[in-house]
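May I ask for an example protein's residues together with how it folds?

___
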Amino acid sequence: MSMKLRELIREVRQCKSASAERAVIAKELANIRTAIKRKDQLEYRHRNVAKLMYCDMLGYPTHFGQMEVLKLLASKPFVEKRLGYLALMQLLDENTEVLMLATQSLKQDMCHENPFIVGLSLCAMGNIASTDISRDLARELEKLLKHSNPYIRKKALCTAIRVINRVPEMCDEYFKCAVATLEDSGQGHGPTVAAVQLLYSICVKRSKHCKKLRKYSTHIIGRLSSLLRSSYDPDHDIGGVTDPFLQVYLLKLLRLISQGDKKLSDDVDSTLAQIATNTESNKNPGNSILYECVRTIMSIEKQSSLHVLAINILGRFLVNRDNNVRYVALNALCNAVHSNTDAIQRHRNTIVECLKDADLTIRKRALDLIYALTNKKNIKSLARDLLNFLTISNTTTSWEEIVEQKEDDSKDKKKKGKKSKRKKERIIIEEPKHDANGKPIFINASSLSAGELEFRQELASKICMVVERYAPNRKWHIDTIIQVMATTTSTGFNREQEVISNLFILISNTPNLQNYCTFKLYECIGKLQLNSDPIRQITAWLIGEYGDKLMDSSECAEANDELNKDKKINDDEDEVSTNNNPHHTIENMTMDIGPFETKTTDEIITMLKYIVKHDKSSESTKGFALTALLKIRHKYESVNIDKDDKIESILEQFKNDRQIEVQQRSVEFLSLFENTDQTARQKILKPMPVPPISKLFDSHASKSNLHESKSDGDDSSSEESTETEEEPDEDSSEEEPSSEDDESSEEESGSDSDSSTTKKRKRKKKKQKEKEKERAKAKARKKKEEQRERDRENQQKPNEKKPPKKKSRKKSKKDPVVPMLAGPDDMEPSNGINNIAPSNGNGNHASNNNKKNGNTDNQQEQPNLIDFGGGGGGLDLLGGGANNNNGNAPSGGGGGMDLLGGILDGLGGSQQQQTSVQQPPSNMDPLGDLLASPQSVSSPQSVSPQSNANKPSPFEAYNSNGICATFNFAPTGGQGVCRVLAVFHNSNSYEITDFSFMIAVPKYIKLQFK
């Protein structure tokens, strides 16, 4: 006899190693297998199944006991049946094949007299029912949805949610039962909650039920109002809130059905306002209801007062001490920032304070929200706050140490016996440390976790993005980017190379700031000794391009004037913030860098040598420094300054560098001076062309747009292209200036908030949709008219002339599909059909057919296919090959073969009679002749009436490489029907395994294969 479950658990816990545990489990599983086979152990079946469940929890295989679980389901005692259903839900899933055997047991228990046994079967069906079981038991479940017992009805409604996910066609039947439960005011809490959840799932699954459910919106609103007015209910009261679960589910259902319905939105306004004002936010149940109420307000039609109320509720959430509440508030604000920008701007200071939270996820969401809130009005203040926080985070200890220190303090207080209340945790950061020279000590990136390092890099990247997007002037733009680079000396930031390239473009297009930038970047390395690779790279580039300004006293004076202007502005703006902010000096460390002094050539070369030999300089930075050395030597070569040997010695040191780019530059630069004269070097080393500033602002504009605006732009561009193809005289001339006006208006109103731009985009998108609908209707009408015209032409006799068309049909964008016969891979094209070229009359027929069907004559030769015409195209079944303008068919090259001409030859008589065939009129339709009735075949193209009665002769379409394709044509008695029998013969000694036959016909011809 096997041991009891309690004894097995005790032995497993006493094991001191994993191998001992495996030995105990393996021994017990072997005993269970033996007990299953013995008939005298049936009374211990429930015990064995319980131990199998325990072994399954530990991760050991128990599939051999699945049949024992099914046997327990069929037992009569309630205890064994309950254990059997529990094991069924744990040991099996919906993909297990054995689960189908439980269908009958589930069906019988769903009809049992004991409501608890019915509840067991419904619970198991709601957890692991497969698609087949759901379909088989759907009708029995529908009966239980109308059961008088609320316990069974609640279980059935919850089970129906899984059934509609597996069998969506049952939504209509279950919808009626759920609505009936919702309308019955006497229903208890359980059935009502289950019915609301079922209705929500049905509406999500099939949106058409949302319109049906709007008729019963009064019941939903009435339930919400009654819950607000109800008194204390001890059964469903949580934290002083009456039935918060039901309120949340009702609000979710209202949010789903009220979208797009203005009338229902007006009816819900008063109820939502009562919920938002009367619900307390002291505990989580009230916060959950308020959050769901805010989501409902944001989804209904625009109501300014309610939206402001919802934003204020989220603002209160931001100061909550619970991290989860703050996170959901930030997430909701991020979703609503583009439609309620002005209301969210009032809580900007609170959002900025969330950047100092100890939770990394909250800081990330706050950063995303601040990035979305930034515009031209608040760029300076927000950039100042972000720079301040970036400086603090990169010069102080990590957030983890601060949190650990707070936790240790709280533990000490608890040990002393003091009652510690949970207070709002905010990080208070002390003033960072400085070295002996007063330079701030930046933290080491290796001491940060991966998440913290990623957040700091993303923060610096976001600052650069908003500065490039909304900078009020170029000088402020350059100073802020330099400050970001100065504060990220150890951590770095994303988009470094992109930011550096944009700064190159900006400085190149701003001549009045080139001297200021050159002196400032030089002093960032010389005085501040910043260990920033982007700053070293920009400094090397500036020295190479504008190094002569460093030795000019007038340029130095102008740079000092720009620096003094900046200092005055900063002193006026920061008089208040300096006293309250201990990090002000660090934040403005790149501002207090002057005064500037002129440099000598020796100092410039020493600076470049420092940059190129710095151990943290990247390969690109060293390349910039070597190029700057080359330009410095060339610029002052004519002056008698003995610096050539010093520059050459620096270049000589990198001739054997391990970095290929650096080695290549040094070798090439040395050989450049050895093998060229000054005139050649003057052309080679002339100043770089200034890139247009429009590229920089175009890239900023494209980044500022959202993904929706990008897709809208793509749609509008595609619509404009189609309009210019169809109506070039009207739409193209009207839309282009309007688009230019929109762009100019957007640039002029850049200082406005983001809400105005989103409104413009919505209006523009709405107009584009209306235009698109009008064009679609016009195209549909045009297609109908063309189809009617083609039908009339097909019904006319061949000798009648067709009325001239007012407009030529639009050429199809795609090339016509030419049917071809694909043979073995090693076959080569040959002139196998030269002996069956069509006659002159057939050539004219093919030409007319091409004009009618709109086929083009630019069909390209397709590779890996047999060439039926001997090189120049494949088999042209409907005249899709090259047109023969003079009426003569090709004799082996220059286009595909006109098979339609051969068909008409067969209809007109034998090949000997083709020479006497009269020339048909130019407006004759050969396909009409082919598909017409036998009486209509007698047309003027034949010599005598007897020729049309002859049966068409077989047509040899292809005969080469041992493959012969013959088409037999037999017009039937039905009007417009022709049978084509294709016979293929292989005379080769090998078997063809890769063979395909393709045929294409116009849209107005129906093709059937038999």
User: Anything to note?
Assistant: The radius of gyration is 42 Å. The first strand starts at residue 237 and ends at 238. DSSP finds 45 helices and nine strands in the chain.
